Amino acid sequence: MTRTGRSPHRRHPARTATALAALAGTLLAGPALAPQASAVTARQVPVINGDFTAPNFTASGSGDKLTGWTVQYPFRLLPADANHPDGLAALLLRNKRTTDQSVSQRLRGVRAGAQVTVTFDDSTGGLKSACSKDQIAGGQPYTLQGSGGTRQTFTTDPGSTDWHRDRTYTFTADENEPLITFASAQTKGSWDCGPLLAKVRATDVPPPVDKSIDKNALPTAEAFEGNERIDARKAADHCAGSRNNCTFTVDTPYSYTYYDKARVVGESYLNCTRNTVSHDRPVRFTGGSYDSLSQSADIDRLPNSKDNLHQQFLRGFAKSSPEPWRWDTVTDRRIHETIEAGEASWIEGQAGRQRVDGWFIGEGEAPDKQIRLHVVADGPSALVPDRIYQRTGPFTAAEKSRCRSDRPSAATPVDAGAPATGTDREGKGGNGTP
Description:
The chain has helices at about 80, 135-140, 230-240, 290-295, 310-320, 395-405, and strands at about 1-5, 15-20, 45, 60, 75, 90, 100-105, 115-125, 140-145, 150-155, 165-170, 180-185, 195-205, 220-225, 230, 245-250, 255-260, 265-270, 275-290, 290, 330-340, 345-350, 350-360, 370-380, 385-395. The chain is mainly beta. It is elongated. This is Secreted protein. Keywords: Signal. InterPro entries: TAT_signal.
């Protein structure tokens, strides 16, 4: 007797389980793609143009560009005017051409949940004798805030134009590539005297890997152009515009192999007989892939083998894995099954899968215009074997009731309950013939 479909009764604690086989083609090919990130020490985080030297400039003063930073009218000082002990250039936060006295930049490679520390030097200064005694005496106030952190106020050393080395600001990022923003809080006095910044650096302590995220609800795909957020479709279309527009890089600490939740495969067999049943059972085990572009942005480029985004993903993944990426798998097996009298038998599969977290990065683009697209993909793994379990156990109450039910039989409407009147040994017309 068979019963098809998934049954909630199959998780009964009285059941027993025996692992039967690893599916074809999924033998252990190497170590897991990446161990869980312990993230116990800080790492250096790139700050683009943290010394404020790009683009090249030959005179202290106003300019319309500052590579890597978002600022309306940067006002930089040459090393000779900045008087930094390391001979560095400096950035003045104040500017007479705008009311926005801020500069900002996204810290690339930093993940949401990371503890970030920004280190920098500050001083009071400007061109020549721009600073009055009052401005020097009181120091110059400014603020610094990172995405997810509180806005902290700093003041350059009162009564001094010396550089204060290694000030720090720490915050916990609430988004990938958090934005840090310096802004002058000085509203009085000559505009060309204010807080000077130099030597901006950053470190972070990455968050632990979250392996509780289901493959059906991957993190939202997100994209940036320079320091600005953009629509994921715009970034995907840009990368797909040419074979080499973007390069995919795996974020190794956040990419890993794992075993998915077990699921029932095929039918459940109930042995309602009084004898042991032994037979061969065909089992088909399948697996598919998921990606955050398809789930959150309705962009079906990654699984499309003819799409440039697909090719960039495969090239980048191949650099981090000894086995190629799998989009789908189908495996047919035949299992010899033995079922004792009064027992149920069913098959469960537990797929070996892998999660890949990474970035598509635009090639040959200036930092202020560089396209970056963050995606997460999840697919069948060639690095760990799938598991198949033959499971047997006693009937549930409903199954026992079904096995005790009467077999189908036609009705006997005439004298159905009367005793037999004789035998059929006599000939036609005898007493034993109706």
